[in-house]
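User: Sequence in, structure out. Go.
Assistant: Echoing your sequence, followed by the structure tokens.
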Amino acid sequence: MERRTLFGGRLLPAVLVAPQLAITILFFLLPAWRAFSESVQATDAFGLNTTFVGLANFRALLDSPVYQAALLRTVAFCAAVTVLSMAGGLVLACFANRGIRGQSVYRVLLIWPYAIAPALASVIFVFLLQPQIGLLSNGLARLGIDFNYATNGNDAFGLIVLIAAWKQVSYNFIFYLAGLQSVPASVIEAATLDGARGFYRFRTVIWPLLAPTTFFLLVINTVYAAFDAFALIFALTGGGPGSSTTTLVVKVYRDGVINLDLGGSAAQSVILMALIVVLTTIQFRYTGKRAT
């Protein structure tokens, strides 16, 4: 039987909902409307004169080879970070879910990296891999391996993928560990009695039960790589060398803040916002079907 909470008047429900509505309007709806209004305008560098241009900013973006390259680079970056971070979180969760001595200590240590700020994570890897002073880069140089993310675009791209994935592993670890602990012990025992052991038992019994968690993390990690990795990338490479680490969110900042192309930057923001709405809609529809 469904239970509902009934309020005697309209004032209390409005008061309870008002803070969330205010936050949504102030930090999402108003900025979204401002970005959309600027995306259909051409603004001078000082922001004094504006001209309505319709969809010209969007057409210019879609016809720009630079924007197309940034889009492909973002897709590759999101795919690499998502796969590495989710695989790492799943492997660590499987090991941490075993009955070993001191498992609570291991779990806490594995969660710690998520608390590190993205800019601080970049600084840590600078001390490790900076071409002149990095501890690991000097060791690689002694082995004859030339690793220089400051001048080599491939090295820089690989490094930001590594750092972004390392930063997100802890998040995936938490959810996968919770998912593994929610698998009924009776199911595991029944599969074991039927002869399913090791990786075969994981692939045929446990992994299907983790499907809702996996899809949820797939969306969250994609959004993280596309948006939240900005501070990490900008603090480490600034989008360089050249444009080798310039993802879409970095390009939005470069075009809007540095190059003062407000209309083009706003159009890019609208496209990014549309992508995140599509991903979120797919997530809610898929998880809703899985729940039923």
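User: And one key feature?
Assistant: The beta strands are 41-43, 50-52.
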